[in-house]
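Sequence design from tokenized structure. All designs in this work follow the same two-part layout: the structure record, then the generated sequence. An example of the structure record is given first.
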């Protein structure tokens, strides 16, 4: 995901009616948490119906003493790692049918916190508010499928933990393909890399070749993005590859993949540039989980192991 501009939607229906319809459609599209990992997902994270917070259990609670020793004093003394998350991006981070925040990002960073001798405390936020809230000190870190790029590294620090690319989906039976995007209406999330870079760049290329531009629709949640394609409001959706694959699976044959994964880039956990040695502590903790297999175990549980990395890096975009 990414940072921010939105193309507004025109809504001609009364707000209350539209809200009810969208809620029902979103439940139909996303289904229940039981279709996450086959072994069952963690349901302890954030059981409140709204933006509450709580600890999440995780695989392998072994503490890495060397990594924990690098924690800033204020975080170490608090005993917790406060994590800003936007739970609308299944299967990475989302709310299950009981209202708990879950997903492989949640499982992974609950385990990272434990590796540092801390408890993970997940706090709900909208995606575009996470980065400024981390900068302001409201959260220790942000974990919400953020792509580590040079633009963001000017504001915050990153430690990488996954690799994801762009991928499209369209209605089943259509001939829509990301390789031929000109003139299409494409839905994506507000503030994502898809909205900020991928679709605009594709559209500019279309215009430069004398073809029709892409019309972009942006939505606050992935449920609404997916729904727009199912209902025919958009020809296709553009999202991170694990999210697109999950959306296709959850719509029970209503959508199909519309092209291959392209332009893979790293996800990163982000933190304030004033966070001292927190980035070194997180890098060491994540790397130790990669090295001992805990990391791969969590990704495999959720079926997203294709995006596994072998080295956790600090500010990988600027490091080259």
């Amino acid at each position: 995901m990414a940072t921010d501009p939105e193309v507004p939607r025109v809504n001609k229906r009364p707000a209350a009616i539209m809200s009810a319809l969208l809620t029902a459609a979103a439940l139909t599209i996303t289904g229940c948490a039981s279709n996450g990992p086959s072994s069952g997902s963690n349901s302890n994270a954030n059981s409140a119906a709204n933006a509450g917070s709580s600890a999440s259990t995780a695989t392998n609670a072994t503490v890495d003493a060397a990594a924990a020793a690098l924690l800033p004093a204020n975080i170490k003394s608090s005993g917790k790692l406060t994590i800003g998350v936007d739970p609308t991006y299944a299967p990475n981070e989302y709310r299950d049918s009981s209202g708990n925040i879950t997903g492989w990002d949640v499982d992974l960073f609950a385990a990272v916190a434990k590796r540092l001798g801390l408890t993970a405390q997940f706090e709900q936020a909208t995606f575009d508010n996470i980065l400024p809230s981390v900068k302001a000190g409201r959260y220790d870190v942000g974990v919400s499928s953020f792509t580590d790029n040079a633009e963001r590294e000017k504001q915050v620090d990153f430690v990488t933990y996954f690799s994801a690319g762009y991928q499209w989906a369209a209605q089943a039976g259509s001939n829509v393909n990301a390789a031929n995007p000109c003139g299409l209406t494409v839905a994506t999330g507000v503030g994502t890399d898809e909205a900020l870079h991928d679709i605009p760049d594709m559209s500019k290329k279309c215009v430069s070749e004398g073809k029709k531009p892409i019309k972009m629709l942006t939505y606050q949640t992935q449920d609404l993005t997916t729904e727009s394609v199912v209902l025919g409001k958009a020809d296709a959706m553009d999202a991170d590859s694990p999210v697109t694959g999950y959306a296709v699976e959850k719509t029970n044959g209503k959508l199909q993949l519309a092209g291959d994964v392209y332009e893979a880039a790293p996800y990163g956990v982000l933190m304030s540039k004033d966070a001292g040695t927190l980035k070194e502590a997180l890098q060491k903790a994540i790397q130790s989980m990669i090295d001992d297999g805990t990391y791969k175990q969590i990704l495999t549980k959720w079926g997203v192991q294709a995006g596994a990395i072998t080295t956790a890096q600090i500010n990988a975009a600027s490091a080259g």
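The chain has two domains: 41-164+266-319, 165-263. We note this feature because it recurs in several other targets discussed in the main text.
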